[in-house]
Amino acid sequence: MRDHARDLLAYAPSARTHAHAFFDEAAPALGAFCATPALQRLGGVSHRGLKRCARNVPEIMVPLCDGQADRTTALSPFSRLEHSEWVCAMATASCALHGLPYDDTFYAATAGLFHDVGHGAFSHAVEPLLHRHGVEDHENTGRRIIATDPHVQTAFSAHGVNTERLLGIVREEGDSGLRQKFVDTCTYVRHDATAAGYASMDGLCWSVLRSIRAMRDGMLELDETFLIEQFLDRRASMYADFYEHPYNRLCNLLLCEAADWLIRAGKLSIRAISYGRDEDVLGPMRLAAHNGAPAWFRSAHRLLLEDTAETGRWSARECSCESEANVLASRASDERPAFALPPIDLTGKSLPVRLPDGSVRSVRALPDSRPDHHRKWHVISYTGPV
């Protein structure tokens, strides 16, 4: 965390000194927090189950990526624990740039560590499955872990953490919550841009971080909005290219459906998803794939293990609306199932901004920047041998 903060503040010597002094004092507390079982579990949870980016693959759903592995690029994997440590470093860097006192920096850094503690196996990829089975989402799970987990509470008591104050930041309330929201987004963009070869994004993230004069009264105070507009546009573009590219949307959908099959067959507990690691899902999936699971399940399992040629066993059909997609999916057989894939909108995140003249506005990516396949319902069908 100290090294990440140092890299972020390479061009701001006074802020770098501020951050180093903070880590010298806070190291025992942050180390104790990272050692809790709740955070250690996140070391076995991948971010979104993401396998590859596919920057140069046409935005088509049929056939997905043409089944060609050389048309996609493997991204360096990272865990939820690594992401949480990077958010902690980004929050510390942001506080250092604004010269905030130790107490405010400490809570910002601690919130960065714990903001994703409720993520289950494969992170966001399985969130639809949690909703389907009536299980609370990762945000509510995380808040409950922060408030009630005995190991976490013991560490908090030892280092004087006010749980309610911390939960307010994690819920993104007030100015400290706004900082949490911003640094979380900035961390994703900086890491994923680097992993995918977008070297210029590192500089853009730094420029945006420096452009924020203060976070006050629920607003980012800026001299102008050009940089942050560019930042949010690039964020939306990267999400479309990486996390929600057709290849990864297919992987995440089939991960959910394969896990759902395991749950309905009594081979997996929904709790193993909510409170487990990736391997707690992959283990039963691997066992089922070698012991009589249907052909579509075995194909989904191979695809999740990055056998990209398996895309040739699946087809996708565009639908005009949700009802049409659900009807088509319901008509499929058990041997050749079909699953509805809803549209998504990654341009919704906005940041409140106040300019020097006192004017206030909400900055977000342009809604019309969504790729065409993000706007439509699709039905994904298994077409391989049974």
UniProtKB/TrEMBL annotation:
It comes from the Bacteria. Residues 80-153 form the HD domain. Signal peptide: none annotated. Pfam families: HD. GO terms for biological process: dGTP catabolic process. InterPro entries: dGTPase-like (IPR050135), HD/PDEase_dom (IPR003607), HD_domain (IPR006674). GO terms for molecular function: dGTPase activity. PANTHER family: DEOXYNUCLEOSIDE TRIPHOSPHATE TRIPHOSPHOHYDROLASE, DEOXYNUCLEOSIDE TRIPHOSPHATE TRIPHOSPHOHYDROLASE SAMHD1. This is HD domain-containing protein.
